[in-house]
Amino acid sequence: MKRWVRTAALAVCVAILPGCWDQTNIEDLTLGLTIGLDLDEKDHLTVHMSAPVFSKEAKKKNEAYEFRSKTLRVSRNQFDAVVTALTVGGKSQVLLLGKRLAEQADWFPLTDVFFRDGKQTVNAKVVLVNGPVSEVIHHYPKDKPRLSFHLSRLLDKNNRRNFTVRTTLQKLLDQKYEKGMTISISELKLNKEFEVTGTALLDNKGKYKGSLNQEESSLLLILQRHTVDEVPFNIHVPHERKSGVFASDIVSFNAGIEKVKIKTAYNEGKFRFDVGIHLSGALTQRLFPFDFAKKGGELEAMIEKQLEKQFSDLVKKFQIQQLDPVGFGIYARAHQYKAYRQVQQQWGDVFAKADVNVKVKLTLKSSGAIK
Q1: Which percentage of the chain shows pLDDT scores above 90?
Q2: Which of 172, 75, 87 is nearest to 123 (CA)?
């Protein structure tokens, strides 16, 4: 009798474990992998969704919709009214923000559903679209994967190349409420093809303030200590003559980040940040004659000077816009808390008046395979 009871109990457990009684076929789901928020010409909120189609009969493998709506959650009912399968929002990979929307300071509460609804995801990448979101959502390149996969892979690749930041919804929330740092997200535009142009800069209210190109984005990632792999540099060396119409004064190298150290001080009502950056790498291109074996130190010094200028110009750009995407305010709070606590609510204005000095140390380990 006991053996029969144990056998029956085991059979029940085995039947329960697979959990197949509530299975849903993927053909019966509309996976909103790409979500977009924008404003139309009359400043009405428009919500966009792109989802893959898992049907053999469908000619298009991607469906896209857009609706005027009061909120992102309300728009789900509108999507359910037109799509064939049940709308599922917890699989989103990319959140697109129209530039027209981001130029407003009060759009951030629209993302509340991502953080409040436990079935939603906070791992979607946040991207600013330099143009209408509708053009991106309805773009169907014939030689590319489905829109959601193509955008996600494009963003990941550009982040690995250190051409743009990687900001998820969770990181966006962290940056939004971090007083010692402002928001930075990837920026995308559509011409004939999708192009990741660099990084968009927002203030703590989420309002768009400016953009960084790919080269400036690489410098920002170095300062943030968020680089992935080596960073490619192309530097114009002064005093090297150009050869006709060709730019023969350029030296290129891939640099690994050895160390980034930021020292903080506070004197006479002003913050001071001394940034030390140590890079190392090898030359990948040199378009002018140079005896690297004898004068390698001179070349390193010339490149260091150019890099210091680029970093300094970037920091001045931040200060003019009263932005701090690097997070200098976090260092100020950690090392000069008493002074920082009194100005944390006006950190953008205070940082704009701070002294920031950047010193770069470069070690070129080789000049490449040829002399």
Answers
A1: 58
A2: 172
Residue 111, domain extent: 23-212
Instruction: Show the CA angle centred on residue 225, arms to residues 222 and 228, nearest 5°.
Output: 80
Strand order through the sheet with 231-236: 231-236, 250-267, 270-286, 355-366
- The DSSP secondary structure of 317-345, one letter per residue, reads HHHHTT--SS-HHHHHHHHSHHHHHHHGG
Is the per-residue pLDDT at 3 higher than 80?
A: no
Does the residue 268 lie in any domain? yes
Query: Which residues, at least 6 apart from 12, have a Cβ–Cβ distance to it below 8 Å?
Result: none
Same domain, 122 and 32: yes
Q: Which single residue is written with the structure tokens 């990632």?
A: 221
Whether residue 11 lies inside any domain: the answer is no
Q: Which of 212, 235, 269 is the last residue of a domain?
A: 212
The predicted model scores a pTM of: 0.89
Helical (H) or strand (E) element with 184? strand 183-190
State the burial class of residue 133 (Cβ atoms within 10 Å of its Cβ: 0-12, 13-18, 19+). buried
